[in-house]
Structures are given as structure tokens and as C-alpha cells.
Amino acid sequence: MQTRSFTETLPRRVVVREVGLRDGLQSVATLVPTAAKLEWIRAAYEAGQREIEVGSFVPARLLPQLADTAEVLAFAQTLPGLRASVLVPNLKGAERALEAKAEMMLLPLSASHAHSLANLRKAPDDVVAEIGRIRAERDARGARTQIEVGISTAFGCTLQGRVEPEEVVRLVQAVLDTGVDAVSLADTVGYADPAMVSRLFERVLRVAGDKLVCGHFHDTRGLGLANVFAALQLGIARFDACTAGIGGCPHAPGASGNVATEDLTYMLHSMGIATGLDFEKLLALRARVAQWLAGEPTHGTIWKTGLPKTFAKEAAHA
Between the chain's N and C termini, which has fewer beta carbons within 10 Å? Predict the structure, then answer.
């Protein structure tokens, strides 16, 4: 019997969406100046990144780190071919995103009832209803803005504990029924392991098919890249990451940020998977971000260890 190498089933190209400017910065105390954020976006763009989550339309009093999202988004929209997305928590935020002609809105929906109440002050089904109103508003305006719903705490919750896979699948089906364009699964608090990722992504793929477009993994317990690999094996070809692994979750004490952009890129390139990213430029950007966030915790490994001598040859095949 002829067998296939596991690498033959992996995507040949993966999109790394940078989310440090939103998911990363919202969890740190330091206020990064707008000018530095624009430098960050330009440097990431020059490194080859073509999907960046640039901020969130939330009240400035709640997240002063993201108060300049409209200005940051406007700059990002001047860069050819850059897909700039924004997170919006409710209809009011969505209206601001639509007025700004955002190409994509990311809407969070927690699979944990307790986390949903803590984060959005609404039960999950009430959030689904709000998502339906946002989709209707988008369509009424004739806007082309795409709507992606991120199912947060899909693998567990520090407030609630276990999150049943059946609830995740139910909520995915509910938001698809509202007419959204895409869904993603997020390990918001770093509870997942590769087996959990495989099982849940398999179940959601049966419901969502090609509308399941992204994995969002935090590296709190050191399994972020392993979880990415588990999703890769199922054909997922888009992942969120934060430069320097910054961020966390306000409802998950001790949680670290997303998988580090530079570590994820190294793993993919070393495996022969193309990303279109320039690794040296990503490392240079990481150093600048670490300066802007002096005193804040950063994460990641490859910036400390350096590249192996075989890396350039392996990356050339990506």
C-alpha cells in the first residue's frame, strides 16, 4: 500500500495575519504613539505582510491603546494590496468601521457564557443576534466590508472552565445562518492541545467548510505552534500572530500573547511552506516593537537563538 508523507497534506502557502496592533496592544499598559503604529504597519508591509488587524472600534475610555484606530486604518488603506481589518464588538463599532470603509470586520463571539458576559456584557445568543443586525446594516449600506466571526474561548475558559464542543458547533452554525462571510476558532486563554485542535476543527469543518478560514492560538502553555501544526494538517492556511508574542487576555491572568509572528514564520519556512514574508525584516521589526514596549513582557524564541545554518536553503524552497 502506498502511503503519503504527512507534509504532502499540508498547505503549500499560508497567510500570517498580524494582530499585534490590536490583540497585542489592548493587553499592555503602554500607549504606543500613532506615529509608531504607522511605522509598524509600513515595516510589516515591507516585510511582506498583506493582512494586518490594525485596531478596534471600541470606546477610547475602555481601551485608550486603540483610540486612534480610525487614523491607523486610514493609513493602512493607502498601502496597495494590504487587507486591513478591525475588531468591532457591537453595532455601534460596526457602523464606525463601515463609515471608514474597512475591508474586513472581525466580530468576537465567545463560546463561554461566562466570558461573553465579562467581555461583552451579553450572553452568546444575544451576541449572535447583534451579529445579525450588523450583517443587515452592512447589506443595507451596500458595503463590501467582509464579516469574520472569531469564536473565542473555543477550547476552554478561565472563568467557566470547560466549553463543550457542541456549543462551539452550535454557535458557528448560528452565525453562518446570519449570513457572515467567514468564521475562525480562537484558543483565547491557551487551554488547547493539538488533539483538541484536531477534534474541534474537524467538527467545525463539517459545518462551516471553506468558511472556516483561520486559527488563533495563544502560547500561554507553550503549545501555540503545536496547535498551529494540528490545524495545518486539516488544511487551515491562515493564522493570527503577534510580533514579539505580545498580548494576552484580560480575563486570563498570566496568559501570554498569540504565537510570535517571527517564530511562526520560521516554522513554516523551515517546513517548506511559503508565506511571502522576509524573515530578516520581521526580526528587525520585532526589535523596534520591543523598544516601543520597553518594560512590557515580550515572548518568542527565534530572535534569541538565531537562525540555523540550514535555514536559508530551506526557506528558498518556500
Answer: N
What does the CA dihedral 24, 25, 26, 30 come to, rounded to 10 degrees? 140
Q: Is residue 1 part of a domain?
A: no
- The range of the structural domain enclosing residue 300 comes to 6-316
From the list 288, 280, 289, the residue with the least C-alpha distance to 315 is 280
Q: Report the C-alpha gap between 153 and 104 in whole angstroms.
A: 21
CATH number for position 136: 3.20.20.70
**Is residue 28 in some structural domain?**
yes
> Catalytic residue among 157, 214, 242, 249, which?
249
Residue 26 to residue 17: CA distance in whole angstroms: 17
Total domain count, the chain: 1
- Is residue 317 predicted with pLDDT exceeding 50? no
Asked if the structure places residue 73 within a domain, the reply is: yes
Written in H, E and C, the secondary structure of the chain is CCCCCHHHHCCCECEEEECHHHHHHHHCCCCCCHHHHHHHHHHHHHCCCCEEEEEECCCCCCCHHHCCHHHHHHHHCCCCCCEEEEECCCHHHHHHHHHCCCCEEEEEEECCHHHHHHHHCCCHHHHHHHHHHHHHHHHHCCCCCEEEEEEECCCCECCCECCCHHHHHHHHHHHHHCCCCEEEEEECCCCCCHHHHHHHHHHHHHHHHHHEEEEEEECCCCCHHHHHHHHHCCCCCEEEEEHHHCCCCCCCCCCCCECEHHHHHHHHHHCCCECCCCHHHHHHHHHHHHHHCCCCCCCCCHHHHCCCCCHHHHHHCC
Query: pLDDT tens-digit profile of 226-280?
Result: 999 999 999 999 999 999 999 876 666 666 789 999 999 999 999 999 999 999 9
249 in active site? yes
In a domain, 174, yes or no: yes
Is residue 6's pLDDT more than 60?
no
Q: Choose among 18, 22, 45, 25: nearest CA to 292.
A: 25
